[in-house]
Amino acid sequence: MTTPGLQALARTDLSPAELAHLHRLLGSWSVLADLSFSDLLLVVATRPEEEHEPQLLVIGQIRPSNRPTLVDQDLVGQAVLQSSWSLSTAALVRGDVVRGTIHHPMIGESIPVENIPVRFGGRVIGVVVRMSSPQPPSGGRGAASSFEKAYLEVFERLAAMVAESAFPFPEEDVGTEETPRVGDGFVVVDADGRVELASPNAVNAFHRMGVYSPPEGARFTELGVEESAVEWALATGRPVVEEVERRPDVIVLVHCIPLLAGGTVTGAVILLRDVTDVRRLDRLLLSKDAAIREVHHRVKNNLQTISSLLSLQARRAGPGAGQDALREAERRVRSIALVHEILSRDPGDQVPFGEIVGSLVQMAQDSVVSSCPVKIEVTGDLGEVAADVATPLAVILAELLQNAVEHGFAFGPGVAGAGAGEGAAERSGTVRLVLEHQGDRLLATVWDDGIGLPPGFDIEMTTSLGLSIVRDLVLSQLEGSIRMGPADGGGTEVVIDVPAGAAAR
User: How far apart, in whole angstroms, are the C-alpha atoms of residue 37 and residue 27?
Assistant: First the structure.
């Protein structure tokens, strides 16, 4: 989707620095809309073209959170003739605030508009168009008019800063969903940090922090509230966002916006938002993540304990079928433990399978006991794999790699592997693991250049426990497919194809 910035870049002569200034304005102008009780549009001039009349391009639109909107349709991306919006054009050309009225087709009457030039680096690069209701903001309610009058006065001070290139601030970050708005709590302080005005919601925020004395005329520190953010904003003329934890169970987000006139700090707007519930949820999530990591860590430790016990039992069993069975069981348990080890570090739903593959290859490499050296190569990567797929897939690949190095190169007298010399000591083998993530499918191919499969081999009829486990995991648990047969040029090839989103059952 084309963003307003890209639209502007394609159709205007604005520089990257000028576009960045407009982007910061779009990220912080919600305070302007709320303080003015108005819909705001941000327009810029398009690049002059000889064959077309000059146009204005709408690159931003915001509605107030405390009043019904006057503009129901989305105007971002639309272009209008400069002659049609003569007031905005005048503000763009003259660099002054231009006021007037326009006819609103939806409400059938004229509405007041204010066109505020957006200046950057001594040049007017856009215009903020304020469209306000023809009725007073208070709507005749009277009691709220004193607050609304104060809101409008602060808006005029910020609008002047926009025209002077003092707002938005150069280093201010683009607002997020947590950024307080005027309706959350609004405080105005003078140049000395004394409260001139506090909205009812701001007073409620003070009450939540245990402050019940009237805030007007007092500094934050006199109210018992941390005022380092306010002091910093007034001293530096730069905005500050800080969380104030008045009590262990109350957290308030404080956004201080200094008010400047001719480069001098004359006061500050402070927006307050009670984020106690949000932070409580964040802590619950962190606690949940920690608990999940701990569970995976304990599962991994238990599996490693089982693996050690099986290994100990195998050593005591002595050579034979019993010892081999215990060692195979110990290897399978270790394969599962690898997945839980990664999940204990990052308790997400996705597992970086590449971290598992390296350990699986090392396990297979360590189990080579024949006189034939075997090299294992890995090509490709599966990327992030769902946790419920990673566990059975790790067991599958461990079995296939183990099967390849253990049985694929069991050369008997007179049998030579690919590339083998005349003596048994000169024989060598290669096992190649190829991994591919193709859209919603995961493909794994295990190839070796060993002695190949016995005549008439059919994986559906195999009596090998390891291959039976592989077949059942692929078909039943991962709902995929498996093909095992002779490889081109000799040896064996196994191809595993499973859905990337398969859910283990």
Answer: 18
**In whole angstroms, what is the distance from residue 347 CA to residue 355 CA?**
15
Q: Do 438 and 494 touch, CB atoms closer than 8 A?
A: no
Choose the most confident range, by mean pLDDT, from 343-347, 362-366, 399-403.
Answer: 399-403
Task: List, in order, residues 6 or more apart from 312 with CB less than 8 Å away.
Answer: none
Provide the mean pLDDT of the chain: 80
pLDDT digit string (tens) for 189-204?
999 999 999 988 888 8
CA distance to 47, 55, 229, per residue, from 51 (Å): 12, 12, 53
The set of residues, in sequence order, having a beta carbon less than 8 Å from that of 48 and lying 6+ positions away, is 54
Cα separation, 471 vs 464, whole angstroms: 10
- Is 131:137 a contact under the CB 8 Å cutoff? no
Residue 93: C-alpha distances to residues 18, 40, 77 (Å): 17, 19, 21
The sign of the dihedral angle between the CA atoms of 53, 75, 42, 159 is positive
Class of the domain covering 182-274? alpha beta
Q: Which CATH architecture has domain 4-163?
A: 2-Layer Sandwich (3.30)
Q: Which residues of 105-117 are buried (b: 16+ CB within 10 A; e: fewer)?
A: eeeeeebebbbbb
Q: Which amino acid is at 77?
A: G
pLDDT score, position 176 = 52
Is residue 502 within a helix (H) or strand (E), and if so which, with residue range? Answer: none
Structure-token match 């946790």, residue found:
387
Contacts of 308 (CB under 8 A, 6+ apart): none
Q: Which residue has the tokens 């002569």?
A: 13
Q: Which residues does residue 385 pair with via DSSP β-bridges, in sequence order?
A: 351
Alpha helix (H) residue ranges in 386-443: 387-407
At residue 413 the predicted structure's pLDDT band, cuts being 50, 70 and 90, is very low
- Between CA 387 and CA 29 the distance in angstroms is 43
In whole angstroms, how far apart are CA 157 and each of 103, 189, 227, 270, 501? 27, 13, 23, 14, 55
Beta strands in 334-373 (DSSP E): 350-352
pTM above 0.70, yes or no: no
Which tokens sit at 2? 């084309």
Output the DSSP codes for 368-381.
--SSS-EEEEEEE-
Residue 364 phi, psi dihedral angles, 5° rounding = -65, -40
Structure tokens, 438? 């193709």
> In this structure, what token pair is assigned to residue 93?
């050309």
Backbone angles phi, psi at 202, to 5 degrees: -65, -40
Bond from prior residue into 168 cis (ω within 30 degrees of 0): yes
d(CA 379, CA 213): 70
- What's the fold here for domain 350-505? Heat Shock Protein 90 (3.30.565)
Helix (H, G, I), strand (E, B) or coil at 27: helix
3-18 as b/e, with b when 16 or more CB fall inside 10 Å? Answer: ebbebbeebbebeeeb
